[in-house]
Amino acid sequence: MPVNWWWVRIGDFPRVQLLIAYLIWLVVLGFLYKQPYAKPAAVLLAVGVCIQLYWIFPYLPVAPRQVQWATSKDPEVRIQFLTANVLQDNDDASALLNLVEQQSPDVVVLCEVNQRWVDDLSPLRSKFPYRVEHPLENKYGLAMYSKLEILSAEVRGIVKESIPSIDAMVKLRCGHPVRLFVVHPNPPRPGEDTTKRDAELVLVGREIRDQQSAIVLGDMNDVGWSRTTDLFQEVSRLLDPRKGRGLYPTFNANSRVWRYPLDHLFHSDDFRVVSLKTLSHIGSDHLPLSVVLSYEPDAQQEQSAPDLDAGDREDAQDAVEELKKPGALDQPPED
Q: Which InterPro entries does this entry report, sorted A to Z (predicted)?
């Protein structure tokens, strides 16, 4: 919907749960078919099923894949990511450290790190010679640890200094530079609309759009099938490796039912995907996400990014213009 009210936009999240609930009720109505309300109720539920499927179908394994599987076996062109929201109040870093040891990623990207987390993660410094650490106590601190050379890095407040992003250039083992953008925008929640989140993703998308090789990742506080994420893809021309492979939900790690894909990685069309999976629990309310990409320039001829038409361009500009309204950057205190 073209509104940014939190109580409307949060409705983007539970589409899978609604779909399952509608299907269950359709089965129940099958046993109540003689009741006068059964037929109209079944019609309404069927419409609801179609609406939810419309949004989530691109992420089901039966849908076409937006990103192809890698064809190159060359380790020099591969880059492995481990990204996670550690949960600032989670005081046990050992699970994450053990997971990093097991997975041996090239780049580790972490959200919600404060100074205590940075201190607890100090063992990573010996294994990851390049790093960017920006701890904060407001649940928006970021950190990036890399085995690959970081050519440049800047911590930027795209919409607000207290909600930073990391804008970096990393060199693959083959020598090719790749721009990395780490983001963790505001979530929709009571008392706060989605203005900052929507605008930040559009602004990052505009910067990335003309970049030859680019990757945007982090806890985006949004599901892949929302209009905001869809618009981000159109503006940035980045691809989503989830599409056609599965939902890979990461939040809430403490619930088997209310779980959504909030942690993402998007990339330019000169990459193919080697693997994509969620990882084991680390004591956070988010599951870590592991993605391995392969830099294969010929992929640009075979996989295409979504287009940005005039209507999409207007929606993107509207999202940015919302930032100029009085109170748009106000933020309620963290719990």
A: Endo/exonu/phosph_ase_sf, Endo/exonuclease/phosphatase, GPI-anchor_lipid_remodeler
Per residue, the 3-state secondary structure of 153-177, as one string, reads EEEECCCCCCCCEEEEEEECCCCCE
CA–CA separation, 75 and 106 (whole Å):
11
For the segment 121-159, what is each residue's pLDDT rounded down to a tens digit?
999 999 999 999 999 999 999 999 999 999 999 999 998
* Cα–Cα distance for residue pair 205/219, rounded to 1 Å: 15
In a domain, 26, yes or no: yes
C-alpha to C-alpha distance for 12 and 252, rounded to whole angstroms: 15
User: Quick one: 28 and 141 in the same domain?
Assistant: no
- Convert the pLDDT of each residue in 25-81 to its tens digit: 999 999 988 888 899 999 999 999 999 999 999 999 999 999 999 999 999 999 999
- 1 assigned to some structural domain: no
Residues 138 and 278 in one domain: yes
Alpha helices in 104-151 (DSSP H): 115-120
Q: What is the pLDDT of residues 79-105, one digit of tens each?
A: 999 999 999 999 999 999 999 999 999
Classify strands 165-171 and 263-267 as parallel, antiparallel or unpaired: unpaired
Domain co-membership, 52 together with 170: no
State yes or no: cis peptide before 114, omega within 30 of 0: no
Q: How far apart are CA 186 and CA 321, in angstroms?
A: 17
Q: Look at residue 329 and tell me if it is in a domain.
A: no
**DSSP letters of 237-268?**
T-B-TTTTT-----B-TT-SSS-B--EEEEE-
Q: What total number of domains does the chain contain?
A: 2
Which CATH number fits the domain that encloses residue 148? Answer: 3.60.10.10
Report if residue 145 sits inside a domain: yes
**CB-based contacts of 161, cutoff 8 Å, min separation 6:** none
